[in-house]
Amino acid sequence: MGFSPRFDHVGITVADLDTVTAFFVGLGMEADQKMAVEGEFLDTVIGMTGAATEIVMLRPPGGGTTLELSSFVRPDHLPGSPAAPANELGLRNVAFEVQDLRAPSTRPQPTATGW
């Protein structure tokens, strides 16, 4: 079995998993059930011992690359920097094409602390 180059997913760590999930569902993404993940596999993947997280996988209608939202149960999450300059290393953006951004007017509005 060799490497098969395929863009599978983008992962984003958030403080409030339910609110951020609802935001993306409001944009039309489809969510899988929330899962708890912990143990040796997680410890190996993230390089932390004793971690526990909850994740939700979201996908665009019709399939495609998924978005993995995770929120740590332990250790506590560390706040990000909303004032990070564009040249600071790290994920800058994930772009989605939507038909009408204002259409789902009842969707939750994430805050800086929710992300």
Shape: globular
Q: Tell me about the biggest sheet?
A: 5 strands, mixed
Indicate the low-confidence ranges by residue numbers.
Answer: none
Q: Estimate what percentage of residues fall within beta strands.
A: 15-25%
**Strand tally:** 5
Helix run count: 2
Average pLDDT for all residues: 82
Tell me the Rg in angstroms: 15 Å
Distance between the ends: 37 Å
SSE order, one letter for each helix or strand: EHEEHEE
The percentage helix is 10-25%
Structural class, please? alpha+beta
Structural overview:
With 115 residues, the chain is of the alpha+beta class. 15% of the residues lie in helices and 24% in strands. The protein has helices at residues 17-26, 40-46; strands at 9-13, 30-31, 35-38, 52-59, 66-74. Strands 1, 2, 3, 4 and 5 form a 5-stranded mixed sheet that branches. A hairpin with a 6-residue loop joins strand 4 and strand 5 (66-74). The radius of gyration is 15 Å and the shape is globular. The termini are far apart.
